[in-house]
Amino acid sequence: MDIINKTTEGGVGILTIGFFNIFDSMDDRIILKNAFENLFAVGDNVFFFFHREENLIASDELAILRKNILEKIEETGGFKYLNRIDDQRFEAIAYAKLDYNFPNLFIDLFKYYYSCDFFKPINDLTFDEYEDYIDVNGTEDIDGVKMIQNKLTDMICIKGLGADHMVVSYNLDLHMPEIL
Asked: DSSP readout, 9-31?
C-alpha cells in the first residue's frame, strides 16, 4: 500500500492511502479497518456525504448493501437525499453515532457508494447546519480542504473513485495518529 503525504499552503495535510483491493483482499480490508479504528472511536458522531451507487459489484449485492447501510445509519442517525434521479443516481447526506461495528460499516460504504466522504464535526456543527453549508457552498471540495478551513471538521476521509484509495485531509494542528 502506498502512502503519500503533502501539505497545502493553507495549513492542511493531505494523506493519500492506496492502492488497495477491498473486494478481493482480506489483508487490505483489515488494514483499512485498522486505519478507521485509529481515526474514529465508538460513540463518535460522524457526518457523511454520498454520491451515487458504485457499479463494481453485482446488482443483488448492491441491494443488500443498500438495505444494510440505510438500516445501520437510521438506527443511530439519519439520512437525507439532496438530489435524486433514481435509486442509483443521487447525492445524499447522513449522520450516525458509531458503534463497535463501525469499521465494517465503512468497508460497506466503500463498496456501495461511488463517492463517499465522512468526518467528525467540530464546533457543535449540527446536521441541519451541514446541509445549509452544502446548499451555500456546493459539494465540489475534492480534497475536503474547504471544510477544514471553514471549521466544520479537523479531519475528513474521502473514498477514492473505484474504491482503491482513500484521502485523509486534516488540520496540521491536529495530532494525527499512526493510522496504518
From this structure: TTSEEEEEEE---TTT-HHHHHH
Nearest to 155 by CA among 56, 83, 47: 47
Is residue 114 within 8 A of residue 160, CB to CB? The reply is: no
Sorted by where each begins, the domain ranges of the chain are: 42-161
pLDDT given for residue 178 in this prediction: 66
What integer is the mean pLDDT of 69-79?
95
Pair type for strands 12-18 and 2-7: antiparallel
Rounded Cα distance, 64 and 69, in Å: 9
Helix (H, G, I), strand (E, B) or coil at 126: coil
pTM above 0.85, yes or no: yes
C-alpha neighbours within 13 Å on the C-beta side of residue 73: 22
42-161 CATH fold = Alpha-Beta Plaits (3.30.70)
pLDDT at 180 over 60: no
Q: Is the peptide bond before 36 cis (omega within 30 degrees of 0)?
A: no
Phi-psi region of 138 (alpha: psi -120 to 50; beta: other; left: phi over 0): left
CA distance 176 to 160: 20
In percent, how much of the chain has pLDDT > 90? 57
